[in-house]
Amino acid sequence: MPTPTSPTPATTPDGTTPPRVAVVTGGSRGIGRRTVSRLAADGHAVVVGYAGHREAAEEAVKEAVAAGGRALAVRADVADEHQVAALFDAAENEFGGVDAVVHAAGRMHLAPIVELDLADLDALYRTNVRGTFAVVQQAARRVRPGGAIVTFSTSVVGLAFPGYGAYAAGKGAVEALTLILARELRGRDITANAVAPGPTATDLFLDGKDEETVARLAAQPPLERLGTPADIAEVVAFLTSPAGHWINGQVVRANGGII
């Protein structure tokens, strides 16, 4: 039986290896923004997908360029399949293809299940579930061999914090979708994994929480601190790199050891 080997990177006519190309949704803020600059530092050309924070997206582009990569900001509602297709079109037209897709766009709404307004549930699921489906559907059609797809879940799926019922249920759907996608990509040499952060110091996480709540959550991991966007971006960078290509169909709970 032949020994398995990693895929040989494609080369240009002059013999050089072209840069890998990444699409990062939610790339204007938080974990997504830090992932943009981290992948750029690895030499990726990055398409920064954003919903409404144009100035923040342009700043993310500047940070990516400063990190040594190339970048482009493209506005897209992740739940609109036509806008998502246009986002991938921009990556292919500007940089020649897509090798990594990091779907970091998301919405959070916290409320006890008994009090949850179903209109808020619909809005949450539109972004977090339909949006994930629309993005990975395009990713499955377009990512080149040797590439990677990374979605985002949450460690709350396992931790079951009160108030997170709708959010955790939607992210549970993301986990199921991602694991099935990995199996449907059999034979394509493309990985699909979900990253499930624990409490991480982003605007999305900190919004509406008092200092006591934040301190209590920060004390839960054995490392006794909140995660940072940089912590999570490192995990994403590994999963999208050749070094992480044997990790496939997994949920990586990046939470500092919370049980």
Count of alpha/pi helices: 9
According to CATH, what is the topology? Answer: Rossmann fold
Principal-axis shape: globular
| Tally of separate domains | 1
* Superfamily (CATH H level) name: NAD(P)-binding Rossmann-like Domain
Secondary-structure element pattern, one letter each: EHEHEHEHEHHEHHHE
Distance between the termini: 41 Å
Largest sheet, strands/sense/barrel = 7 strands, parallel
- Adjacency order of strands in the biggest sheet: 3-2-1-4-5-6-7
Estimated radius of gyration: 18 Å
Provide the low-confidence segments as ranges.
1-9
Number of strands: 7
Tell me about this structure.
The chain has a 7-stranded parallel sheet with strand order 3-2-1-4-5-6-7, with helices on both faces. It starts with 20 loop residues before the first strand and ends in a 7-residue tail after the last strand. It is 43% helix and 15% strand. Strand 1, helix 1 and strand 2 form a beta-alpha-beta unit. The longest helix is centred in the middle third of the chain and has 25 residues, at 118-142. It has a single domain (21-199, 230-252), classed as NAD(P)-binding Rossmann-like Domain (Rossmann fold, 3-Layer(aba) Sandwich). It is built from 9 helices and 7 strands; from the N terminus they run βαβαβαβαβααβαααβ. It is globular and about 50 Å long.
Layout of SSEs?
Layout: E1 21-25, H1 30-41, E2 45-50, H2 54-66, E3 70-75, H3 81-95, E4 98-103, H4 118-142, E5 143-152, H5 156-159, H6 165-184, E6 191-195, H7 203-206, H8 211-218, H9 229-239, E7 251-252
Parallel strand pairs: 1-2, 1-4, 2-3, 4-5, 5-6, 6-7
Helix pairs in contact: 1-2, 1-9, 3-4, 4-6
